[in-house]
Amino acid sequence: MPVKDQVIAIVAEQALLAPGDINMTDTPVDLGLDSLGLVEIVFAVEETFDVTVPFNANEPNTGDFDISTVASIVAGVERLVAEQKA
Amino acid sequence: MRRVVITGSGTINPLGHSVAATLEAMREGRCGIGPLDIRDVDRLQIQIGGQVRDYDETTHFNRQQISLYDRFTQFTLLSAREAVAQSGLNFSGELADRSGVVFGTSGGGLNTQDENYRAVYEEGKNRVHPFIVPKLMNNAAASHVSMEFNLRGPSFTVATACASSNHAMGQAFNMVRSGMADVMLTGGSEAMLCFGGIKAWEGLRVMSKDGCRPFSATRNGMVQGEGAGVFVFEDRDHAIARGAEILCEVAGFAMSSDASDIVTPSKQGAARAIAGALKDARMNGEDVGYINAHGTGTAANDKTECAAVADVFGAHADRLMISSTKSMHGHLIGGTGAVELLACIMALRDGIIAPTIGYEEPDPECALNVVPNVAQEATVDAVLSNAFAFGGFNAVLALRAAR
Q: B130 vs B67, B68, B97, B116, B262, CA distance in Å?
C-alpha cells in the first residue's frame, strides 16, 4: 500500500471516519482531532514506518514536521520514509 | 478551629541537599537542569533533567537500609531529618500518638520497578530480591519516616500526579486545623529519572529537549526533576507554648476537579481552586503578593494558569508576582509542590521572590510579572502555591507570614 494510503488509514482510524471520507485538505480541527489524537497519529506513523517523527505538542506548527493538513502529514511521512531508505 | 504553622523544613533536590543550599540557588537563579546521567540514556529522545547530583546513598544509609529504601524513600528520609531537627520536636508519649505523616508521590519506587522489570524481562532472571514490594510501594516513604521518628498517629500517602504534594500538605493542614493531629510531617518526594520513567513521559510529546522556560514565548515543554521536600505542620498554640521558631502560617487550602479532560488543563478548574484557597484563608485577592506557579513550561499549562490568575485577581493580577521555580529544579511531579513551598517560605520570611529563569521572550498569553530571570525583593504578607495535575485535579495552598 502506498505511504499516502497508509497515512490516510491511520488518520481515519483516529478520526473515527472511513478512509474515503478523509480529504487531503482537511485540517486536524476539520477532522475533530485534539492534541491527544495528533500524538496518537504520530505514534502510529512511527510504529508503521519505523521512523522518528520530530513532533512536540507544545509547538505543533513550528517543528520540521508540518501537521497542518492531511496532505502535509503525508508529505512529511513520505520525506521521512525516503530519508530512512537513503 | 486551630491555626497551623510550619516549624521545620527539609529538602534534597537538584538545587541542593539542604534548605539553605536550595534557597541560595533560588536567590541566585541557578539552574539545576542538565544532561541526564542514567543507564541507557542514549536510547532516549529526552536527555536532560533535574537530577540530584553528587549523591551517594551509601554515605547516608547502610546496606540493609538500602535494600528497603528506594531513591524516593531516601530523599524523603533525608528531608525529614532536616525538617524535624529544625523543629526541635522529639516524638514520644502522647505527642507521638497525636503526630502523623502524609506525603505525596506519583511514581513511588519507580527506580525499583524499573530495575527489577529489567532483571526479569531483559536479563531473563527468574528471581528478585525479597523486599521489592515493600521497597517500591507508594507509602514506603511515609512508613519509614513514621518508623524513624516514632510518629504513631494518622498516616498515609497521596498520589494525584503533579498535585500530590499539595494535596498531601492540604490534608496535613486540615488534620492539624481540625484537631485530628497536633503535628504532621508532610510534603512529597519523587525519583522517576530512570529509563522507563522518562520513556513514558517522552511518549506524550510534551517534554522539552533543551530546557524549561515557563511563561516565555519560546517555551517548548517541561523538564522532569527529582527530589523531596518535607515540612513540620504544627498546631500554632503547641508551637508557641514550646517556644518554637515559626517559619510561616498555613492559612488555607482548596482543591477542585476539572471533570473535563485527562491531560488538557482547565482555566475554570484552576480558578476555582485558587479562589477557594483565598476564601478558606479568609484572604482578599489584594493581600496576595506572590504566587508560586505550577508553571510547567508547556504551552497549555502556562497560558491557562495565567488566564486563571487574571480571572481570580482582576486588576491585582498585574501587581502581584508569579514565578515558576521549575525553571531551576525541573518538574518533580509528585514532589514538586513540596520543593516549591520553600520558595513561598523564602518570600514570606526573607522578602526574596525566586525568579523564573530561562525567560527569553514575552508571551502575550502570559502577560503577568513572572519575575524574569533575576530574583526580586519585596515584602509580602500572603502567598499562594498552585499545583494542577494531569487528571484535572487542582490543589492550592495559601500561606501567611508569621508576624
A: 9, 10, 31, 11, 36
Q: What angle do CA B328, A35, B334 make, to 5 degrees?
A: 35
> Domains along chain B?
4-241 (3.40.47.10), 253-400 (3.40.47.10)
CATH of domain A3-85: 1.10.1200.10
CA A9 to chain B, closest CA, distance in angstroms equals: 21
**Torsion (CA) B163, B286, B401, B387 in degrees, nearest 10:** 10
Contacts of A53 in chain B (CB under 8 A): none
Q: What is the mean pLDDT of residues B150-165?
A: 98
Q: Which residues of B touch A56 (CB under 8 A)?
A: 205-206, 208, 220-221
Q: What is the pLDDT of residue B270?
A: 98
Q: Is the pLDDT of residue B120 over 90?
A: yes
Inspect the interface and report whether the beta carbons of A59 and B203 lie closer than 8 Å: no
Q: pLDDT, tens digit, for every residue of A10-32? A: 999 999 999 999 999 999 999 99
Low-confidence stretches of chain A (pLDDT < 70) are: none
B188-203: pLDDT as tens digits: 999 999 999 999 999 9
pLDDT at B305 over 90: yes
What does DSSP say about strands B183-190 and B99-104: parallel, antiparallel, or unpaired?
parallel
Contact A42 B263 (CB under 8 A): no
Strands B288-292 and B183-190, bridge-based pairing: unpaired
- CB-CB contact of B167 with B112 (8 Å): no
What is the Cα–Cα distance from B124 to B164, expressed in whole angstroms?
A: 35
Cell representation of residue B316: 491585582
The residue of A39, A58, A64 whose CB has the most chain B CBs within 10 angstroms, and thus the best one to mutate to test that interface, is A58
Q: Taking CB atoms and an 8 Å limit, are B206 and A34 in contact across chains?
A: no
Residues B58, B56: Cα–Cα separation, whole Å:
5
* B92-106 pLDDT, tens digit each: 999 999 999 999 999
CB B225 within 8 A of CB B330: yes
Instruction: State how far the Cα of B167 lies from the Cα of B160, in Å rounded to an integer.
Output: 7
- 8 A C-beta contact, residue B129 and residue B115: no
Put residue A32 in one of left, alpha, beta given phi > 0 → left and psi -120 to 50 → alpha.
left
Kindly report the average pLDDT of chain B as a whole number: 98
Please indicate whether residue B162 is annotated as part of the active site.
yes
Instruction: Note the helical H segments in B105-244.
Output: 110-117, 132-136, 140-149, 164-178, 195-203, 236-241
